[in-house]
Every structure is written in structure tokens, then in C-alpha cells.
Design a protein that fits this description.
The complex is a heterodimer of chains A (272) and B (374). Chain A has 272 residues and is mostly helical. Helix content of chain A is 77%, strand content 0%.
């Protein structure tokens, strides 16, 4: 089919637009990565001299180290608690009919519409009123509240997609309910549980706004530590840290993909 | 099961007529909806009983009640003489095969079949032996390590059968097991299942909406409609002597003609249609007196072109459909309640039937039943 000049123009325009969009997506990461290797003590672009020294500084900086440690503690606790609570509620919402079911569901999902700083501020006021020290507990509770809707949704969808005939078949073969849960329901839900946990962990580790309110110097997580650093310094350590962050995350995802089958975990698995 | 296979006479030992499953006035309500209404039914040991009816007739609900997936709202369910109303599914010793087979996707074929044996705490070596025997029985020897997703539809069904049978269930429950298979595979799986069932002598309850499947597989058929049992009988009796309008029209192709009661002769009644008359059972006609109009149900294979025989109806041929083994000739006639008759002619001279031609129709003396005119 012959193409008119106009169609040819549209085709070219399409390619340019797509390339521009893709460029904008990766441009920030590229700029930051290049800036991280700048020898000078200011964040500037493009670098004139290349150096690894900001990587060494970022890794050695004590606030980043403690922030990373705190982040791991908070994330692992919060994601596991959110997973257990979310799974329980998802199960109840899927399998049982009870009064106020819709209301309870709405409350569980409400952190999606309440801004993070509101949750953080609210917990800060509550903790102060109750005289609770600003330790890990408050931060973990805050993160559980914020990631719960995502975990709940993810597991609820998996449960909806689970054909209950698998469970009935197991029962007909002589499996009591607890055995059905352990040998049929949980293994078939595993992709949903893992993806729910993964969501929770990523969100929790990156959470900044609410964490800013509820963390103290002793419990500050990595994003908060980074924010505090930027307020005081403007050297490329932050950029170096970003590069480390990107590389670590990419490595983790590659690992998850090859050993666990990420596609299987992130999608709702074809379980039939 | 496998012990029974080793002993080919096993089915001989079971007493004929012994009741394996009994339902006494079983009712099931879901909220305001009554899905089953006071169903009474006895299933004999070793027989293949089909629950047949259109969707929504309650047949699947009945199967689920026997399986223990729901509790009845009223009445009694007995398996081997034991009341099981509130016995949970996992204690009922039943084998169930689902429409989509419900093979556990995260387990191998061997693990699927061995699941019920593991639940019974049977030793590992024994499980391995019985699983491989069961696979051999369904002609899938050597596929132990496959996953269900690596099997064809027919193979999945065989695994599902093996999984249900390997536990020696007291009753085997089949929920529309052939509906997911294509037509040619369906026929061969039906023959195989029937064979297996006969060989093992396992009491089987089979749910289907497919009347030809029911006729070809069953020892007895329970025809259901709107939560009630309409007739329980052998396939031949159901086909030849339906006890009810619904049963008559649900099973096989049947024509409904406007007739009139001539006279009663004991248990029989004489019904006239056109110039011809039919001998029918008087029982369904109740108190109708001679002269009353009735609907006469005649199978399409019992009608033929009248060549000298008394004419039942006359009309015009509206369509001719060649079916290979037989030819279906559709005739428009006022004698039929629907205005249309179907003649199923086994002599394949379809060329003789011209669309639009006038035709006179006679009966060949086969079974007919009459019910009060609707």
C-alpha cells in the first residue's frame, strides 16, 4: 500500500514520541549515575574528572549505614505483619459473609486515600498522647497501616482466582480442613502471597513521608537519612547512593526472576 | 479398588438390590430458593445411577449433598445405612470427579493420585505400588512424574478417575465429567468409564444434562426437574414409557399429536389420532373420560410415510435433513401441537422426499404415551 507523505510524517512523529518518552524515563537515572562519578564535591553535570570516592563516602557514612539497618528491620517486620494480617482479612472477606463486611473492607483500604503525612502525623500525636517512646514499634505500625491495602488486594485477588473445587477435591479424598489449607490452599496461593509480600517490602523500604514524622534519630530509615543528608550537604554521595540502590535492586530482581520466576509471582498465576 | 481388580468376581459378591445410598425426603433451600424438594431416592450397590435434568433442576445440588459440600435443610442422607447428614466430606469415603477434574496443579500425577492414600496414612511403598497400579488401570502407566498441565484433556480425565478410585470409595460421584471433552474423545471415554465401573463394581452417581449420555451409560436414570424427582427407571423404560410430559419431551426427539380417548380396556386406553388409533397406558390419563382430548407423544422413529396404513396426519414437507444413518423429515401439519412433526426414517432414500410435497403419515406400532391435553 503506497504511503502518503502525511502518513510517512505521522510514522516518523510516532517513533520520535516513543523515543522521547523512553528517554525521559531513563534520563534521570543516567544523569544521576554520571554525576555520582564526579570528582568535585558539588553535584554538577557533566563531570570533568572521574572518581569512585563518593561511593566510598556513601558506604562509609554512618547515618546511611544505620538508616539501611533500620530500614531492613522496619521493612522485614512491617511486611511480615502486613502479610499475616492482610492474608487473614483477605481470607475472611473472600470466604465468609458477615455484618459490616463492606465497612471493614473500606476501612482496611482507606490508607490508599488518606495521605501518608496524615497517617504519620496522626501516629506521632497518638504516640505522644499515650507516652509511647518513638522506637521501632511506632515506625513498624505506621508502615503496616500504609502497606496493608496493597497486601490485602493482592491476596484477595489470588483467593478470588483460586478455584474452590481444588479444596473440595482434597476434602473428598479425605483431607481435613487444616490439611487442605496446608497442602492445597497455601501452595496455590503462594504466588499471591509472595507478590503481596514483595509489594509490602518495596513500599515499606522506600516509604518517606510518614516515616519522616514517626522516626527519631535512632530509628530513621534510609530515605529519611538521605533527606537529612541532602539538607546539609550537596556532594555526589547521594548520587552514588542512588547508583548503589539501582544496582542492588536490579540484582535482586534478576535473582528473583531467575530463581523464583518473577513473572509468575507478579502476575496472577494461571492456577487452573 | 485394586484388590477388587485382582478378584474379577468381586461384583458378583455384592448382593443385588442392596442399597448403597439412600435419600429420605431430602430438601435443600438456599435462602428463599428451594433447590431440592423432598427427594426420595435409593441407589443400589454397584449400579451406575444418572441424575438427569436441565440446568437448575437440582441434580448438582443433590450430588453436592451426597458429597457433603452442603448440609441438607431437611431429610436424611444415608450411605451404607449410616446417617451422614452432618458428617464432613473428608470422613465420607467418597470419590468425586469434577467437571474440570480439579487436578492439583502444583502436584505431579503420582502425587495427585496418591493424595487420598497419604491422607489415610498408608505406607510410602504401598502408595507407590497402588498409584502405579491405578495408572495402569486407566492406561497411563509411566506418566507418574508429569504435571497436570502437561497432559491432554483425556489424560487429565483418566488421572482424575484414578485419583477418585484409588481410595476404594463407597460411592463414586461424577459431575458432568465428559462436558469438557471433544465429541470423539467423549464417546471413547464414556465406553471406558462404563467398562471400568462395571469391572470394579463401584456404586456410581453420575450427573449430566445430556440425555443421550444418560441413556447409553446408565443402569438407571433419575429424571429431575425443578428440584423434584420425576421418574426413576432403566434407560429403556424411561425412553419407551416416560411417566410424565416433561420426561417424554426431555429425552429423545418426540412428536406431540392432538388425540382423543376412544375407550378404556383395563390398564390400557385407546387413543385415536386421525384415522389411526394407539394403545397407551391408561395410568397417566387419570379420570379423563372417553372423548376427552389428550396429547399423544410418539417418537420420531415410530412415524413413517403411510402407504396404505391408516393415516395419523397429513401435511407438507418443510425440510429434509440427511444424517448419514437416517434422514430427518420435517412436516408441517395441523395435527401436531407445535404444528410440526419430525419423522426419523432409517432407509436412506432421502431423494424421495421433496420439500413442499404433500405427505401422509402413519405410525409403525411402536410405543406411544398419552397425557392430559395441555
Amino acid at each position: 500500500m503506497p504511503r502518503s507523505p502525511f502518513q510517512w510524517f505521522l510514522g516518523c512523529l510516532g517513533i520520535v514520541v516513543v523515543l522521547a518518552i523512553l528517554g525521559f524515563l531513563i534520563l534521570p537515572a543516567v544523569v544521576v549515575t554520571l554525576a555520582a562519578f564526579n570528582d568535585k564535591a558539588i553535584l554538577s553535570f557533566p563531570p570533568e574528572q572521574w572518581s569512585w570516592r563518593w561511593f566510598a563516602r556513601a558506604l562509609a557514612y554512618e547515618d546511611f549505614q544505620s538508616g539501611f539497618r533500620n530500614g531492613l528491620i522496619v521493612t522485614s517486620c512491617a511486611s511480615v505483619i502486613a502479610l499475616l494480617v492482610g492474608a487473614t482479612f483477605a481470607f475472611a472477606l473472600d470466604r465468609y459473609d458477615f455484618r459490616l463486611k463492606r465497612t471493614i473492607e473500606a476501612i482496611l483500604l482507606s490508607p490508599l486515600v488518606v495521605p501518608h503525612f496524615t497517617v504519620g502525623l496522626g501516629l506521632l500525636i497518638l504516640a505522644a498522647q499515650l507516652g509511647v517512646a518513638r522506637g521501632y514499634g511506632v515506625v513498624i505500625v505506621c508502615h503496616v497501616i500504609l502497606v496493608l491495602p496493597f497486601v490485602l488486594r493482592s491476596i484477595y485477588v489470588s483467593l478470588r482466582n483460586l478455584d474452590q473445587r481444588f479444596e473440595l477435591a482434597a476434602a473428598s479424598l479425605g483431607a481435613p480442613p487444616s490439611t487442605v489449607l496446608l497442602t492445597i490452599t497455601l501452595p496455590l496461593l503462594l504466588p499471591g502471597l509472595v507478590s503481596g509480600w514483595l509489594f509490602a517490602a518495596i513500599l515499606s523500604f522506600n516509604e518517606f513521608t510518614a516515616s519522616l514524622f514517626v522516626t527519631a534519630q535512632r530509628t530513621q530509615t534510609l530515605p529519611v537519612a538521605m533527606y537529612n543528608y541532602v539538607r546539609e550537604y550537596a556532594d555526589p554521595s547521594m548520587a552514588a547512593l542512588s547508583v548503589i540502590y539501582i544496582v542492588a535492586t536490579a540484582a535482586l530482581l534478576t535473582f528473583a526472576n531467575s530463581f523464583l520466576g518473577l513473572g509468575k509471582i507478579l502476575n496472577v498465576e494461571q492456577s487452573r | 479398588m485394586l484388590n477388587k481388580v485382582a478378584d474379577p468376581d468381586a461384583s458378583m459378591h455384592t448382593a443385588q438390590g442392596e442399597i448403597a445410598v439412600r435419600l429420605d425426603g431430602v430438601t435443600k433451600r438456599f435462602g428463599q430458593v428451594t433447590a431440592l424438594h423432598e427427594v426420595n431416592l435409593s441407589i443400589r450397590r454397584g449400579e451406575l445411577m444418572t441424575l438427569l435434568g436441565p440446568s437448575g433442576c437440582g441434580k448438582t445440588t443433590l450430588l453436592n449433598l451426597i458429597a457433603g459440600f452442603f448440609m441438607p435443610s431437611g431429610g436424611e442422607i444415608l450411605i451404607d445405612g449410616m446417617r451422614v447428614n452432618h458428617l464432613p466430606t473428608y470422613k465420607r469415603e467418597i470419590g468425586m470427579m469434577f467437571q474440570n477434574y480439579a487436578l492439583f496443579p502444583h502436584m505431579t500425577v503420582a502425587a495427585n493420585i496418591g493424595y487420598g492414600l497419604r491422607m489415610r496414612g498408608i505406607a510410602k511403598a504401598e502408595i507407590v505400588r497402588r498409584v502405579s497400579d491405578a495408572l495402569a488401570l486407566v492406561k497411563l502407566a509411566g506418566l507418574e512424574d508429569r504435571k497436570p498441565s502437561q497432559l491432554s484433556g483425556g489424560q487429565q480425565q483418566r488421572v482424575a478417575i484414578a485419583r477418585a478410585l484409588v481410595i476404594n470409595p463407597r460411592v463414586l460421584l461424577l459431575d458432568e465429567p465428559f462436558s469438557a471433552l471433544d465429541k470423539s474423545l467423549r464417546a471413547s471415554m464414556q465406553v471406558e468409564l462404563k467398562d471400568l465401573q462395571r469391572k470394579l463394581g463401584v456404586t456410581t452417581i453420575f450427573v449430566t444434562h445430556d440425555q443421550s449420555e444418560a441413556l447409553s451409560l446408565s443402569d438407571r436414570i433419575t429424571v429431575m426437574s425443578e428440584g423434584k424427582v420425576l421418574q426413576v427407571d432403566t434407560p429403556e423404560e424411561i425412553y419407551r414409557r416416560p411417566g410424565d410430559r416433561f420426561v417424554a419431551s426431555f429425552i429423545g426427539d418426540i412428536n406431540v399429536l392432538r388425540g382423543r380417548i376412544e375407550e378404556y380396556e383395563g390398564e390400557r386406553a385407546k387413543v385415536s389420532v386421525g384415522e389411526a388409533s394407539f394403545q397407551v397406558s391408561a395410568a397417566p390419563l387419570g379420570p379423563l373420560s372417553p372423548g376427552a382430548p389428550v396429547d399423544l407423544f410418539v417418537r420420531s422413529e415410530h412415524l413413517k410415510p403411510a402407504s396404505g396404513a391408516p393415516t395419523v396426519a397429513a401435511g407438507r414437507i418443510s425440510a429434509v435433513v440427511y444424517q448419514g444413518g437416517h434422514t430427518d423429515v420435517y412436516v408441517d401439519t395441523p395435527a401436531a401441537v407445535s404444528g410440526k412433526l419430525l419423522l426419523r426414517l432409517s432407509d436412506n432414500k432421502s431423494g424421495r422426499w421433496e420439500i413442499g410435497a404433500e405427505i401422509k403419515i402413519a405410525a409403525d406400532g411402536g410405543d406411544a404415551v398419552a397425557f392430559r391435553a395441555s
